[in-house]
Amino acid sequence: MPELPEVNGLIEFLRAEAVGSVVVGVELASFSVLKTFDPPVTSLPGLTITDVTRHGKFIDIDVDGIHIVVHLAKAGWLRWSDKLPDTKLKLGASNIAARVRLDKGDGPTVGFDVTEAGTRKGLAMYVVRSPSDVPGIAALGPDPLEPGFELRPLLGRKMQVKRLLRDQKIIAGVGNAYSDEILHAAKLSPFAIADSLDEDEIVRLEAALHDVLSEAVEEARGKPASDLKDDKRTRMRVHGRTGEACPVCGDAVREVSYATSSLQYCATCQTGGKPLKDRSTSKFLK
């Protein structure tokens, strides 16, 4: 799933490539991708893209005051093309859910496709007059890289710190992968309870949240959209690396599996050497 650093990379890429371009058309190839009806997508052709910004994991494309907002969900992506095919999209014919054609005024129509792999469809596109009209944006918690962000007041909850980091209503932009990386850097169990963290643990978590995300944003900066996913995978220290050696201590990276996801951690670095039970309601193997 694209998270804050990758979405930020996409934003910067789109801002460089698309701002100033005129929308030629928006084609939909999925019944479910568009979640709004007013303004209609037919109101966009002829308008100019004036900015591209981010709200948590949401991409916000400002088209002369009308906003195309995209949430890539678990398996979505944005694919840029310097020359889109002339043929129109066919409903359900590929993994392309929507296509935005643009005119930069210097040749063939450019633009981007919004794609989604797999059969579980979570990709969402909205055309709205204000980003706050998107329910997911209206409910977002604070952005961890915004000036003035404070983690400490958000920790007074009796919930696992892994869940807290991923809850978009508490902190915007962090998902499964970066929560694993943040907790590894902070030397904290994903099952630790947020309101039970001591002062030293809070300080470590604050530093890890800022440092891991800031470093990832810098790594993603300047890369083309096509490279961002692979770049993310190469930077992961524990997430997605079950069975590999922890880069800090050399112990094997372990996994806890759920019905639709999993987490990775290092027992030596994070849980005092105790393996976590492979279900969400347990703390440690007895």
TrEMBL record:
Residues 237-271 form the FPG-type domain. GO terms for molecular function: class I DNA-(apurinic or apyrimidinic site) endonuclease activity; oxidized purine nucleobase lesion DNA N-glycosylase activity. It comes from the Bacteria. Its EC number is 3.2.2.23, 4.2.99.18. The keyword Metal-binding applies. It catalyses: Hydrolysis of DNA containing ring-opened 7-methylguanine residues, releasing 2,6-diamino-4-hydroxy-5-(N-methyl)formamidopyrimidine. CDD domains: BaFpgNei_N_1 (cd08973). Transmembrane segments: none annotated. Pfam families: Fapy_DNA_glyco, H2TH. InterPro entries: FPG_cat, FPG_N, H2TH_FPG, Ribosomal_uS13-like_H2TH, Znf_DNA_glyclase/AP_lyase. SUPFAM superfamilies: Glucocorticoid receptor-like (DNA-binding domain), N-terminal domain of MutM-like DNA repair proteins, S13-like H2TH domain. Residues 2-98 form the Formamidopyrimidine-DNA glycosylase catalytic domain. Keywords: DNA damage, DNA repair, DNA-binding, Glycosidase, Hydrolase, Lyase, Metal-binding, Multifunctional enzyme, Zinc, Zinc-finger. PROSITE patterns: FPG_CAT, ZF_FPG_2. Belongs to the FPG family. This is Formamidopyrimidine-DNA glycosylase. The lineage of its organism: Bacteria, Bacillati, Actinomycetota, Actinomycetes, Propionibacteriales.
